[in-house]
Amino acid sequence: MTWTDFPIIAPLVAALLVAVAIIGVDMIAPGRSRPAIAVALVGLGIVAIAIVWTDQLVRTGQASGVAFGGAYTVDPLATYLDLVFVAIVALTVLFGPDYLGARDLPVAEYAAVLVFAMSGAMLIAGSSDLLVLFVALELMVLPGYLLAGFAKHDALSTEGAIKYFLLGSFSSAILLFGLAYIWGITGTTRIDGVAAALASAHGVSPALALGMALLTTGVAFKLAAVPFHYWTPDAYQGSPTPVTGFLSVGPKVGAIAIVLRLFVEALGPVHVDWMPVLAVLAVLTMTLGNLVAVSQTNVKRMLAYSSIAHTGYILVGFAVYANDPSGEGLTAVLFYAVAYAFMNLGAFAVVAALQKRPGVTSQLDTFAGLGRREPLLGLLMTLFLLSLTGIPPTAGFFAKALIILSAVQAGAPILGLAVVLNAIVAAFYYLRVVVYMYMREPQGEPAAVSHGALLRVGLAIAAAMTILIGLLPGPLIDAATTAARSLLPV
Amino acid sequence: MSIPETIPIIGASWDDVLFVLFAAVMLGSALLVVTLRDIIRSGLAMIVCFGSLAGLYVLLGSPILAAAQVLVYIGAISVLVLFAIMLTQTKAGPARLVFQTQWWAAALAAVVLVVIFAAVVAATDWGAVAVRVQSTTDAVARLLFSDYTLPFEAVSVLLLAAVIGGIFLAKRDEVRD
């Protein structure tokens, strides 16, 4: 690398320095959560500024946008995804301390590994080399394994973490095997080189088909798409609740970034061969996720299956993008990722707020009477659940609407219909929580609710974004469109 | 005295014979890893498997990879695995492996996969990638510090994150009042 590379990788370097700074502060003031959180939040702000600064340099042509001889690229897509990752991690840091503090879990390590995971996700978003992509993926998911087992004296947490770790490692190996096949066929690891080699080749060789099958399997594991979702409910239910919120959003958006870089960009020339597979996966994923979610009585587990269903909706956008020259499907995917991040993190934060005391489960009964006991918290949960259902004027409505529109425009109305039918099924189990909150009397002593300042700020941001995106979706649609265009052939 | 190009009497080249030898040992020991009932023996069989893979790397003309394989996999990972087994095994714990309840399904899946992979690899024209190159340590180092600097650096960050996580999980909590 040279010094001209520096502005391009400045956000990444900033992210790493923030992670190291959090650990450093913890060494100076061991076990104190406030300095670590302050450093983390200020640091994340600096990372966000660095992302915008780099983006400006690239847009105005003062920097090339390519670093490390073509292994790392900053384009509008990378900027868009980077900012999403920063927002996700910042909210997760806000939601953590109340829950962790009540259980004597350290906040500094929590914040530091979250920032490490974020730097991995940012590296995925900007990677233009298959090897970088793989290492970045590992950097993103490895902190996730640790976070899932963060409550290390809790048997459920450890069990979920081990399942997550073992299946995650297998899926990474499968993905790497697929990457090896792609390298074997094209002879290069650079993503533009792979795309060029595949574009000039005639048809799909058996090895390419096998490579794509391995890649699809690996990515489907990371996305938690059916039938590769078995680790999800246990890992989500066992993890500390703020971590569950992160796991359901961070690595999922990271996996979306992989699909964008790997399938849309590198394997774009052979998209006719993988798109039907994604369409089938999409329908299977949303249907099974929703049907199983209906029968859940634990809200965390229900939200785990609901996150599987949302993966299905997102996959629809990928399955239709190439049939529509404007790339509407990719715009819908990128929009959905943001809307989903805010509403899902918000929903998990409310669950975490209810678990102020260690040992409080996330059974549906815990929510009984919440609407009258804690009107504001009940209202926020209702908002997030309505948004997850897809009811206007929330962010979730436009997210689903864009996905359905893109499917219809691409000539696949059947996929749009599948989304609509699934949204109706999903409304049942989301609204059941609302019914519990407002129409059921609590059994026995109601659970104490935490009112930490950071948690309130985080909930306020998540709720404000959920409403704001729902009322004024224009700017986000524009940003998503610009980001999606950088992937499409001009 | 120089070694003849082909092995006398059999007529096969040294490369081919060594390949068959290493591959057979590797597959045989890999099978032992998954079929042996005693986990320590599985670990020892794994070392043999790693060693024969190092032999294959030498045959493929990549001595640096073979050296790394021996140092990292046999030298570090296998020893760590054996240590981990010895330190975590208790008399109360199951001495036998507990996951071998669906071996027939796994065996069936493995056989099907082998057939698919063999068919695919044989049916594909691998072009330039299939040409054997002698990769020197010098060339590998040059690539590592030019085209592949970023993954190299990213791996070091990955290891840092892993170390922090590993220490957190492994460290004993301080006793609180």
Give me the Rg of chain A, rounded.
21 Å
H and E order of chain B: HHHHHH
Task: Please give the oligomerization state of what you see.
Answer: heterodimer
What is the domain total for the residues of chain A? Answer: 1
**From the helix content, strand content and strand pairing of chain B, which structural class follows?**
mainly alpha
Q: Which pair of protein chains has the largest interface, and what are the residue counts?
A: A-B, 43 and 30 residues
Average pLDDT of chain A, rounded to a whole number, is 90
CA-based shape of chain A: globular
| CATH topology type of the domain at 14-102 in chain B | Four Helix Bundle (Hemerythrin (Met), subunit A)
* Discrete helix count of chain A: 19
Overall geometry of chain B comes to: globular
Low-confidence stretches of chain A: none
The portion of residues assigned to helices of chain B is: 55-70%
- The H-level CATH homologous superfamily of the domain at 14-102 in chain B, spelled out, is NADH-ubiquinone/plastoquinone oxidoreductase chain 6, subunit NuoJ
Low-pLDDT residue spans of chain B: none
Kindly describe this structure.
- Chain A has helices spanning 6-28, 33-59, 76-102, 107-126, 130-148, 155-186, 191-200, 206-223, 232-238, 241-266, 271-294, 299-320, 328-354, 370-373, 375-389, 395-409, 413-439, 453-471, 474-485; strands at 66-67, 72-73.
- Chain A is mainly α.
- Chain A has a two-stranded antiparallel ribbon with strand order 1-2.
- The two termini of chain A are 29 Å apart.
- Chain B has 177 residues and is an all-alpha fold.
- Chain B has a domain at 14-102: NADH-ubiquinone/plastoquinone oxidoreductase chain 6, subunit NuoJ (Four Helix Bundle (Hemerythrin (Met), subunit A), Up-down Bundle), CATH 1.20.120.
- Chain B is built from six helices and no strands.
- Chain B has helices at residues 14-35, 39-59, 63-88, 103-123, 137-144, 149-170.
- The longest helix of chain B is centred in the middle third of the chain and has 26 residues, at 63-88.
- The mean pLDDT of chain B is 83.
- Classes of the chains: A mainly alpha (490), B mainly alpha (177).
